[in-house]
Design goal:
Pdz3 Domain, 8% strand, 14 helices, alpha+beta, 55% helix, two-stranded antiparallel ribbon, 430 residues, 2 domains
């Protein structure tokens, strides 16, 4: 796990970089130059105007969003998840442009088309995650809540939300330019899968979308502070400073278990003792005790624990090595490999397809089956709506039904393709 790559400084030579700073000036100059070049090349066309909302969105992010997610004293954190998300968009778009070029399609048109899908895809993926885990985002103020919602570099995207959002974005572009729907989707889906494969590596680096316990040689133990580690702490499966607390979050902070041979045991702490304070701060609940111990693990070499039964305060040092999660299935890597193989399969199948829509139909058939099975070994998402099925499994069933309808439509259509390689070189279509 490697959540943060580096920090972008808040200032450069005393000049603010974020917000209404140097980066916004660079954005303005680059945006004007790009639009001027597009107008010179193709005039004030629909393709040119299609860049305007995307550039405005980027400017709004630089002006208002980046300062909100910057860390005081450190700067803007560049997360590995965000880096892989960028690489996913870049690689997926590049693959689509390359495939479009082989069909004689103009690269600028293909770029505009992919951006119309990728950005709504990210919005849809985030929206699904926020709705699913609203309690994690709801803060005391509206501003703090919005910061949590827009900070996608911390993880928190749902693939099916990305697929729905992306299809809506692509659909808007298809309707606007009167494009052949199934042929356009066939052009796009391999790039979407390549992006998904790289995005799942970002999930692994951040630690989200993890699997259940595993004894396989490639099982992964995630470090202190990672999502699986925190989940196991709150489930009472990991010792912190040699202590475990069980029960509901609001239960009294009573020690449930003391690690044998630990410093906590040597200083007289025992199961059943009620903790009064940690590092001098009164703790009133199990959740409060866990939070304080986690904070101390990250910031301090030693922690003090006061109980109602012991007259002396126990002084506990950070154990070495630092605790990690139990060995878990790296389901993020399973999903990345699955998406990469499916991408290669669609690319290999493409020359043999007889009708438009077959690549999209294959995606909607194979991916939901693989996702449904993978969900059985994931533990980060519980069953929903009173069932043992996760949200991913329910959407898998929905998309399998959509795939069945799409196959029925495709196989009833006469053979033919809307996009085909040009017979001669010397020009791009669209």
């Amino acid at each position: 796990m490697f959540p943060t790559v580096f920090h972008v400084p808040e200032q450069v030579a005393g000049v603010p970089l974020l917000g209404a700073g140097l980066l916004l000036v660079v954005w303005a100059v680059a945006s004007v130059a790009l639009l001027a070049w597009l107008v010179w090349r193709q005039g004030v066309s629909a393709d040119t105007l299609g860049y305007v909302p995307l550039l405005l969105l980027l400017g709004a992010i630089i002006r208002w969003i980046l300062p909100l997610i910057s860390e005081a004293g450190l700067g803007l954190p560049i997360r590995s998840y965000g880096v892989m998300l960028f690489l996913a968009v870049f690689a997926g778009t590049s693959l689509t442009i390359w495939r479009g070029g082989r069909l004689g399609l103009d690269a600028d048109w293909v770029l505009t088309l992919t951006l119309w899908g990728f950005i709504p895809g990210i919005v849809g993926a985030r929206l699904f995650y926020v709705v699913r885990f609203w309690s994690e985002f709801h803060k005391p103020t509206v501003g703090a809540t919005l910061v949590e919602i827009v900070n996608v570099t911390q993880g928190g995207l749902i693939v099916y939300g990305a697929l729905i959002g992306g299809l809506l974005g692509f659909g808007a572009m298809i309707v606007r330019q009167k494009l052949p729907p199934l042929a356009t989707l066939d052009l796009l889906v391999p790039g979407m899968l390549l992006g998904l494969a790289l995005g799942r590596i970002g999930c692994f680096l951040f630690g989200c979308c993890y699997g259940g316990p595993s004894s396989l040689p490639w099982a992964v133990r995630f470090p202190l502070g990672s999502p699986p580690f925190l989940q196991e702490v709150h489930q009472g499966e990991i010792f912190l400073y040699g202590l475990k607390f069980l029960g509901e979050a609001d239960d009294p902070p009573v020690i449930a278990e003391v690690e044998p041979g630990s410093e906590a045991e040597r200083q007289g702490l025992r199961a059943g003792m009620r903790v009064r304070a940690i590092d001098g701060y009164a703790v009133l609940s199990v959740n409060h005790a866990r939070t304080e111990l986690l904070r101390a693990h990250r910031l301090e070499p030693q922690v003090t624990v006061a109980t109602a039964q012991l007259a002396e305060v126990a002084r506990l040092s950070i154990p070495s090595p630092l605790p990690r999660s139990r060995p878990l299935h790296p389901t993020q890597l399973y999903s990345a490999i699955d998406a990469a193989i499916l991408c290669l399969f669609l690319l290999a199948y493409d020359p043999f397809r007889r009708r438009d829509g077959e690549l999209m139909a294959l995606l909607l058939t194979i991916y939901p089956i693989n996702r449904f099975l993978t969900e059985f070994i994931r533990t980060d998402d519980p069953g929903v709506w009173g069932t043992w099925l996760t949200l991913g499994q329910l959407f898998s069933l929905v998309f399998l039904a959509v795939a069945a309808g799409l196959w029925w439509h495709i196989l009833r259509s006469p053979p033919g393709k809307a996009f085909f390689p040009p017979l001669t070189t010397g020009g791009s279509r669209l």
